[in-house]
Amino acid sequence: MSTSPLYVYTSTFKGKRSMQLSEETIFGAFSLIFWSLTLIPLLKYAFFVLSADDNGEGGTFALYSLLCRHAKFSLLPNQQAADEELSAYRYGHRSPTSASSPLKRFLDKHKKLRIALLVFVLIGAGMVIGDGVLTPAISVLSSVTGLQVAEKKLNEGELMLLACVILVGLFALQHCGTHKVAFLFAPIVFIWLFSIFGIGLYNVIYWNPKIVQAFSPHYIIKYFRETGKDGWISLGRILLCTTGTEAMFADIGHFTAASVKLAFTCVVYPCLVVQYLGQAAFLTKNLSSIEHSFYDSIPEPVYWPVFVIATLAAIVGSQAIITATFSIVKQCQSLGCFPRVKVVHTSKHIYGQIYIPEINWILMILTLGVTIGFRDTTMIGNAYGLACISVMLITTCLMTLVLTFVWQKGALAIPFLIFFGFIEGVYLSSAFIKVPQGGWVPIMLSLVIVLVMYVWHYGTRKKYNFDLHNKVSLKWILGLGPSLGIVRVPGIGLIYSELAVGVPAIFSHFVTNLPAFHKVLVFVCVKSVPVPHVSPEERFLIGRICPRPYRMYRCIVRYGYKDIARDDGEFEDLLIKSVAEFIQMEAVEPQFIGSDSSSYDGRMAVISTRTLQGSSSLIVSEHDDSDINEITQSSRALTIQSLRSVYEDESVQIRRRRVRFQLPQSPAMDPEVRDELLDLIEAKEAGVAYIMGHSYVKARRSSSFFKKLAIDIGYSFLRRNCRGPSVALNIPHISLIEVGMIYYV
């Protein structure tokens, strides 16, 4: 937002409007800019939207997450009652949800409306990602045009080459992480803001102090009266003064809502107003300078320092929107709306700073294409304005739902929607006029992104529903007996499934086709819940699927949409500790004891990973890999360990310390509990295998043409070209067993 003075006046009056320039139109343009900044970023965002954060996280998906929790708008039926007990779950809820609300009942009755809401949110996310393409292009290109003002010899091609070099350098440095250069960001932005404030104040005093009269909205009326239809069309470019507002909301997770409000209202807003005021004062006396109004308005003695800081500020602004794009993609992926991509933590100390290589290089290619293809900030501005105002209008609609269902302030929701919806609707209608002159870019980008996200979410939902409706009957498992009708060999089998309740159909493939299976089975479900972060104390839910002799457990690992599962090598050990803790908890707490064996599945307990550090269930000792032969006894374990050591010798960086569990001497321990814990320890020493289904999803023959197109072509293509689930879950390749299965959805 702070770099928008580089191009707002130029974009507004360049072209057909340049022949109608007068002092009155400059006054009117500034009045429009001032009230746009006041009503949208200041009033709407600083005083309303920033207060609707989700546990400190912002953006369209944060608002959607609030609605999924408090109004039950989620389409993926993997939420449990235990999720509502998370400390972050009730965040932002002002009062109990009114289940009898007519609007709520209407939305619950019509599932298609919830699908429409999801598509609406995806369009907003697609537009924000489109901003990640357009912001670097317009910011860097606008900043380097200052060279053309000072050095008349430079032609358009040379400026384009310089802009492309800066853009390639910007994207190439993303893998280093924001934290390595972030210490420069604050000084650059601070110097830039006070530079434009000083230049604006100088221009007001030197050129035309009467410009302060333009604060009156009376000049807006005069502007439209004089310019007519051209004035309405120019709104699509005047709204560029508000660009970056949505990124401000999306980036609050890196700071706090209070700090963003304070910085904007006390520093950014007044500096921008004074700069636009000064630039308008300069233009009233220099109408011919509209082509490069910002750089022409800079006093000559400070021209080059301001040019340098303007270029640096453009890079910082671009960095901010690129970071916001990474965050949006991560949120989409966690909520099942984006294919699995590699997410890299770039800082060990600052949580939330991430880098996504695939997205970074796609953004770079698209940004270079836009820069080289348009070669003009006015054309890029047409595209940029449409993308920004679309996201703002979507945020207004989502905020209205938050006011209604989360804050329970329906009386405020309607005026909010009418007031801001009307203002943004007028801007949007003007921006749509420019679709043939560059506005088609964000529309096409958003359509492609929304198509990818919706097809992925649709396929994921269909696959989950197939698993849900084809669960293995618990009576069938109980009928097989504790041996499951096969040989139970030493070891732990971690069976990964997306089901939070029930046994997946793939389990029957193992039991009916394999002659032997592990003695201890743990069904692991790694799922995202609609909260930004899940604390370590609440991450694990442990339960039992069958009676004690079966040695079958369930572990649900919960992550928020901003959490990242780090490959720290502790998951396996934490899982064993959690199961051991559950076994002891079950023996002493009566709510886990019941005669009805069929009710075992579904009774879960939250096991804190932090309290496990001081748990007395097991004695934990660490040892180096070189000591493993002295600890493991079975030939199978030795074979697995020899293979693992060869694998790790090739990847030295993943070598880890091994953990050995022992049972403490406790005469008071129940014999059945002791036997179960001993079986768990012996199974751990024998080895752990990770078992996953390698699924192929196909549409049924009776499906419609569009469903076959979405599933057989779209979803299958995305699954083949994204990261595999085993890689995304950091499962060691040497211990992985995959079994193929076809899903006819």
TrEMBL record:
Pfam families: K_trans, K_trans_C. It is found in: Cell membrane; Membrane. It is a multi-pass membrane protein. The chain crosses the membrane at residues 26-47, 115-139, 159-176, 183-205, 262-282, 302-329, 350-372, 384-407, 414-433, 439-456. The keyword Transcription does not apply. Belongs to the HAK/KUP transporter (TC 2.A.72.3) family. PANTHER family: K+ POTASSIUM TRANSPORTER, OSMOTIC STRESS POTASSIUM TRANSPORTER. This is Potassium transporter. It comes from Alternanthera philoxeroides. The lineage of its organism: Eukaryota, Viridiplantae, Streptophyta, Embryophyta, Tracheophyta. The gene is KUP3.
